[in-house]
Design a protein that fits this description.
Elements: H1 3-20, H2 26-30, H3 33-67, H4 71-98, H5 101-119, H6 125-153, H7 159-167, H8 169-187, H9 190-200, H10 207-214, H11 219-231, H12 246-276, H13 286-309, H14 312-332, H15 337-353, H16 358-365, H17 371-386, H18 389-400, H19 402-423
Subcellular location: Membrane
Membrane topology: Multi-pass membrane protein
GO molecular function: carboxylic acid transmembrane transporter activity
Length: about 425
């Protein structure tokens, strides 16, 4: 996708949305061209981010067969990717406060694209592990930079919808990765197809050209930077731990830990539980995956609308309760192949939709001068801690069984989220200048 194509699609979309008159879409038509270009740059970036990230899950069986690595080795690639992405998101938040949201977004998109391509050139497990870890560093950074950017360019009353729609790009990228996998593995030998899949991951690098030319820094950030220059008061990362912000930082980190811990608890182990303990054969079908992806996209869209409609906190609590119900259904109810297939939709809907309001909420919790640092730290502390949940479930399962362990961790995680949400302030409609 080149810069002219991106610009044309933005302008065409604006005209289309304007003509609909739909109240759910009117915010887009009323946004200025700068905001619309930032929106599409972030959404496409997040879609390509999701595409590159999800590629690994499709090629693990091929890597096991081709290189003879163990499932534990394959799982460690995923764990290390998540941990490095947490570090990348943290650092990208600091950079976005120092060098700007747009420049940080450019760097992170280019970073994860290049290292995804290098995954396709790896000659052994060690090289793939290193390339994938470095790819994760950029993937985590892209979320932080994009979420802060889009959160600052959209007006307060529409921020939740816009940021949530950007987040929905993840499900689209997941779907694109699944389609590319199906096509490449049907026309190429597996030992070549997996490399081609990763090499296609270089495509996001082209997005940097469009971002560089057409996307500008948010006005609220530029104003803060001028003030910092005039007063020689450079923002410091440690400010998010100052007495004024420490309580907010800790509670927001608990919120994200609950969301991501619950997500990893459910999505990492449920397929294994249902296939090995419930012996449900649908787990190996593309229909189950398609149902989850469709549910994820619908969840992102619905949550994006609800977070502006009912508020940030009620929306988090609603989706947390829905995720708890899904975890209970999967681990406690007698399921058939058909019922499990249809439950894939609400699984994706609630587990993914809870993230839709996260970017807007974190944007509104922190002042402009340290917004990137605060958002990057809180979201990625949650990601790092949440990444440990699958390991802890595996340990606990030897004593209580896998199904019970999944349920315990899912309920605990979403319970932490609900408590954190109840203690944090409601920020719907908050103007960033006064944050």
């Amino acid at each position: 996708m080149d810069s002219k194509t991106l610009t044309a699609s933005v302008d065409d979309a604006a005209d289309m949305k304007s003509s609909t008159g739909s109240p759910q879409l009117s915010w887009y038509a009323e946004a200025g061209p700068h905001a619309r270009r930032a929106f599409w740059s972030c959404k496409v970036g997040y879609m390509l981010d999701g595409m590159d990230t999800q590629m690994l899950s499709f090629v693990i069986p091929t890597l096991v067969a081709t290189w003879g690595i163990s499932l534990a080795d394959a799982g460690f690639i995923g764990t290390l990717t998540l941990l490095s992405s947490a570090l990348g998101g943290w650092i990208a938040g600091i950079l976005s406060d120092r060098i700007g949201r747009v420049r940080t977004l450019q760097l992170t998109v280019l970073w994860f694209a290049v290292f995804t391509g290098l995954c396709g050139l790896a000659q052994n497990y060690g090289q793939l592990l290193a390339a994938r870890a470095l790819m994760g560093f950029g993937f985590g950074g892209e979320w932080t930079a994009g979420a802060v950017l889009i959160g600052e360019v959209i007006r307060a009353r529409d921020r939740g919808k816009a940021v949530g729609l950007v987040q929905s790009g993840w499900a689209l990228g997941w779907g694109v990765a699944a389609l590319l996998y199906a096509v490449l593995f049907s026309v190429m030998a597996p030992e070549i197809a997996w490399r081609a899949l990763f090499l296609i991951g270089l495509v996001p690098a082209l997005l940097v050209l469009a971002i560089r030319r057409y996307v500008k820094e948010p006005e609220v950030f530029e104003q803060a930077r001028v003030q910092q220059y005039d007063t020689q008061d450079t923002p410091r990362f440690t400010e998010i731990f100052s007495p004024r912000l420490l309580s907010t930082t800790l509670r927001a980190a608990l919120l994200t830990t609950g969301a991501q811990g619950g997500y990893y608890a459910i999505t990492t182990w449920l397929p294994t539980f249902l296939k090995t303990e419930r012996h449900l054969t649908v787990m190996g079908t593309g229909g189950y995956l398609a149902m989850i992806i469709a549910g994820s996209y619908a969840g992102y869209l619905c949550s994006a609308w609800l977070t502006d409609r009912i508020g940030r906190k009620p929306n988090f609590i609603l989706f947390a309760l829905g995720s708890m119900a899904i975890a209970f259904a999967y681990t406690s109810l007698p399921l058939t192949n058909a019922s499990m297939l249809w439950l894939g939709f609400p699984l994706g809907f609630f587990a993914s939709g809870i993230f839709s309001g996260m970017g807007a909420f974190l944007t509104e919790l922190f002042p402009t001068r340290v917004r990137g640092s605060g958002q990057g730290f809180c979201y990625n502390v949650g990601r790092a801690i949440g990444a440990l949940f699958p390991v802890l479930i595996g340990v606990l399962s030897s004593r209580f069984g896998l199904g019970t362990s999944i349920g315990i961790f899912a309920v605990a995680a979403y319970g932490v989220l609900i408590i954190a949400a109840l203690t944090l302030p409601e920020t719907r409609g908050r103007e960033l200048e006064s944050a």
